[in-house]
Amino acid sequence: MWLEISVAALVLLQTVTICLLWLQGRRVKRGFADKKGEAGNVPSLMIVNALNKIEHRLSVLEERTQKPQVQARLTEASVAPMTASRSVSHHLSASNYELAQHLAREGCDAEQLIERCGLSRNEAELVLRLYAKRA
Q1: What mean pLDDT is predicted for residues 30-52?
Q2: Which member of 5, 51, 131, 134 has the greatest number of CB atoms within 10 A?
Q3: Nearest in space to 127 (alpha carbons), one of 104, 111, 99, 109
Q4: Would you state the pLDDT for residue 118?
Q5: What are the sequence ranges of the domains in the chain?
Q6: Would you say 130 and 113 are in contact if contact means Cβ atoms under 8 Å apart?
């Protein structure tokens, strides 16, 4: 008989414990749901203000980086018509100068450098002075 009473008491105690744990679990879930709505206990006005400050700083940085680019484009646009032919010939003539240096080392004269490399007379003479073999 004592055994039956003690078993019944244990079953009743376990049932009460399970009910209490279930209720406590529900409270914890409600607490997490409430905190999600509060965004970590930070008022939404503070979040909006912080975002506005960040956007302002980004716009200032964008303006700072775009001003030099715009000025460079304006400068290029104003200088481009004057130097268009020079820049093309300079870009293409880098390999021509290397060829001219090689030919000058081999002993070619200014006329050959002008014909083969497309250099002006002054450029050909300069290359010869710099790279020609000295006797």
Answers
A1: 73
A2: 131
A3: 104
A4: 84
A5: 89-135
A6: no
